[in-house]
Amino acid sequence: MLNAMLKIAVLGSGKGSNFAALLRAIARDSLPIETVLVASDNAEAGILALARGAGIPTYIVEEEKYRTKLSPEVETALVERLAQASPDLVVLAGYMRMIKSPLLEKFPRRIINIHPSLLPAFPGLEAWKQAHEAGVSETGCTVHYVDAGMDTGEIIAQECVPILPDDTPATLHARIQEAEHRLLPAVVGRFAGGG
Ligand code: GRF
User: Fold this and answer.
1) What element of type H or E holds 166?
2) To which H or E segment does residue 118 belong?
3) Taking 90 as the threshold, does the pLDDT of residue 5 lie above it?
4) Which of ligand 1's atoms lies nearest the C-alpha of 93?
5) For residue 78, what is the domain's CATH number?
6) Which secondary-structure segment (H or E) carries 112?
7) What is the pTM of this model?
8) Is 115 a catalytic residue?
9) Per-residue pLDDT tens over the stretch 101-124
10) Is residue 1 domain-resident?
11) In which domain, by residue range, is 104 found?
């Protein structure tokens, strides 16, 4: 199986800088990874534009903005579309909703997420702001398996980022994102057998 392509589906709600970093790493390092689908719950999301530009199939998750979790019909439709794409790994790259049943059951231990803190510290929203307000000296980013909790799944890899005296939440977030752009491609590359 070493030479087989790892098929990934990517879910995101925002600008997609992590997905862009992943695409760059795949091209730069000739990683045996094929992105079979990019799905977003935000029709305007940059991640969809990136995917279209790269000729990757896209899917829009039609859901009300206020829901933190998809309604059952919408989640079932997403699972069906994902099953059709048949990924080996589902990558959450800035996907802002909770993942529950039946998506978790469909891809057991095959959904990973990138989170902007050193979990288990600072789960949830705006983790860089939480770390900045807490006055800790370092934070970072984590790639972890997704379970039914909020950023609670088994940790796969982390990268530390120091918090500097003159950091604002924005400068800290920018530096964490630079670390994310190294960590996520490295982890997905490992799933693909790329070292
Ligand atoms: C990242 O900071 C990630 O840690 C968080 O959402 C953000 C997504 O950014 N879960 P982008 O859309 O990849 O630029």
Assistant:
1) none
2) none
3) yes
4) 13
5) 3.40.50.170
6) strand 111-115
7) 0.95
8) yes
9) 899 999 999 999 999 999 999 999
10) no
11) 6-192
